[in-house]
Amino acid sequence: MIPLFGVAMSPAAPAAAAEVLGSGRIGQGAKVDEFEAALAARIGNPRVATLNSATAGLQLALHLVAGSTGDGDDGEGEVLSTPLTMEATNWAILANRLRIRWVDIDPATLNIDLDDLARKISPRTRAIMVVHFAGYAVDLDRLGQILDEAEARFGFRPVVIEDSAHAWGATYRGRPLGTHGNVSVFSFQAIKHLTSGDGGAIVLPDDELYRRARLLRWFGIDRTADRLRNPPDVPEWGFKFHMNDINAAVGLANLAGVDDVLARHRDNAAFYDRELAGTPGLELTERAGDRESSFWIYPMKVEDRESFMKRMDDAGIMVSNVHERNDLHTCVREYSALLPNLERVAPQIVCVPVGSWVTDEQREHIVASIKKGW
Ligand SMILES: Cc1ncc(COP(=O)(O)O)c(C=O)c1O
C-alpha cells in the first residue's frame, strides 16, 4: 500500500533527543528557546511561542483574543468557522465556552467561503477561525477588506485566527503564513511537514499578545523571574501548554531538512497538476498565482467517490477524505446550519498520497490508476 501519510524524521533526530534525555534537563529550557528562535527566523516573525500541540495553540489563541473564563461572557459570543477541518479547530471554540457559527466552504479551494463569512459577521462575532486547507492559503487580503467593512459597520474588528496546521512553508503574496497580521497556529504533530513528535506554535501579531501567550502557556507564571527569592504574582491564570526540550530537539533536527520535505510535496503535487488536469470526472482545486501551497495533502473532487476509492484500494494506493465535516457531530448539533456548498462537495473530496515518501514510480502508478478508471 502506498501510504497517505508518512513521518519525516531526520536521521539526526534520535541523537538530538538522546542528548537531551541524558542531560538531566528535559523540561522547557534552552532547546525550546533555540527552536523558537529558528522558527521565528524561518517565519519572519519574532513573536513565536512553541506549545505541546496546535490544539493547545488554537485553544490558547481564542482564549487570548476572545476567551471567556466562564464568568465574563454573556453566552452569546460567536466564532465564525469552517466545518471542513480537523475537529481541533472547532472544539477550541467549545473549550472557550463560545458558540460556533458555521460558514460554508468555497468549493474551488475547500477553504472558508469569504462571501458567506462577510454575510455572517455580526455584533456577536468574537473571532473568526480560518483553515488553510491542505496548505493553500485563504485569500487574506480579501479577508482584510471584509474586516474593514465589518469595522466600519459594527465599530469593531473581529480577530482572525489562522489554523496553519497543514501549512508549514506556505506563502501568501510572497510572505510565509504567520506574517499577515493575524494570530497563526502551526502543528508539529507526527505526520506534519515539520514534526517534533507532537508540538505546535502560536505566532502573534503584536508584542502584548506575545507576552501573554508566553505567560499563559505555563500557568501564567513568569519563568524568567527569580521564583525562589522573589516569587512572581500571577495576574492572569494560564494553562500547561508549553513545549519541552525533548520535543524541541526533535523539531530542531527536523527543521534542518524541512525544505527538502516541502519541496518534494510540491514536486509531487505539480506532477499531479500536470498529469491530471482535464481528466473527466475529476476536478482539481484552485491554484492562484499569489500563493504557494505546502500541499500537506492533495485533495480533489471526484464524481463517484465510492468507486474511485475502491479502484485505488485495488491498486494499492491509500486514499481518504482526511477530515470529516465537523458540523454533523452530535456535540455541535445545536449550531446546525444550511451549508449548500459543503453539502454538495464533501461527498466528492478525496486525497491521494503526495508527501515526501512518494517516489517517482509511485506517483506515476497513482496517475495511471486514476486515469484508468475513466
Ligand atoms: C486543521 C488542523 N488543525 C489542528 C490540528 C491539530 O494539530 P495537533 O495534532 O498538533 O494538535 C490538526 C491536526 O492534524 C489539523 O489538521
Question: What is this structure's SSE topology?
Answer:
Elements: H1 13-21, H2 30-43, E1 48-51, H3 54-66, E2 78-81, H4 87-95, E3 99-102, H5 114-120, E4 125-131, H6 140-154, E5 159-163, E6 171-172, E7 175-176, E8 183-187, E9 200-203, H7 207-216, H8 245-255, H9 258-276, E10 282-284, E11 291-292, E12 298-302, H10 305-314, H11 340-345, E13 349-352, H12 360-372
Parallel strand pairs: 2-3, 2-4, 4-5, 5-8
Antiparallel strand pairs: 1-9, 6-7, 6-11, 8-9, 10-12, 12-13
Helix pairs in contact: 1-8, 2-8, 3-4, 3-7, 9-12
The chain binds pyridoxal-5'-phosphate.
Residues 53-55, 85-86, 88-89, 131, 163, 165-166, 187, 189, 200 line the site of pyridoxal-5'-phosphate (PLP).
Keyword list:
374 residues, Aspartate Aminotransferase, domain 1, 13 strands, binds pyridoxal-5'-phosphate, PyrdxlP-dep_Trfase, DegT/StrS_aminotransferase
Report on this model:
By secondary structure, the protein is of the alpha/beta class. It has two domains: 13-255, Type I PLP-dependent aspartate aminotransferase-like (Major domain) (Aspartate Aminotransferase, domain 2); 259-372, Aspartate Aminotransferase, domain 1, CATH 3.90.1150. The protein is built from twelve helices and 13 strands. The protein has helices at 13-21, 30-43, 54-66, 87-95, 114-120, 140-154, 207-216, 245-255, 258-276, 305-314, 340-345, 360-372; strands at 48-51, 78-81, 99-102, 125-131, 159-163, 171-172, 175-176, 183-187, 200-203, 282-284, 291-292, 298-302, 349-352. It has a seven-stranded mixed sheet, sandwiched between helices. Strands 7-6-11 form a three-stranded antiparallel sheet, with no helix packed on it. The longest helix is centred in the last third of the chain and has 19 residues, at 258-276. The protein is globular. The model has no long low-confidence stretch (mean pLDDT 96). Pyridoxal-5'-phosphate binds next to helix 3 and helix 4. InterPro entries: DegT/StrS_aminotransferase, PyrdxlP-dep_Trfase, PyrdxlP-dep_Trfase_major, PyrdxlP-dep_Trfase_small.
